[in-house]
Amino acid sequence: MVETAEVIRQVLARGDGLDPWLSFPQRASCFGFGPNKSAIPIGALRLLWAAGWPWSQPCPSCRGTLHAISFGGLLSAGGAKSVCTGCARSFFQQIGGLGTMADLVRASPLMGTEFQPTGMTFGGATTSDGAALRSALGMAAPLPGAGKSEVFNCVVSAQGADSSQLNELQLSDGDK
Ligand SMILES: [Zn+2]
Question: Where are the domains of the chain?
Answer without folding.
Answer: 2-156
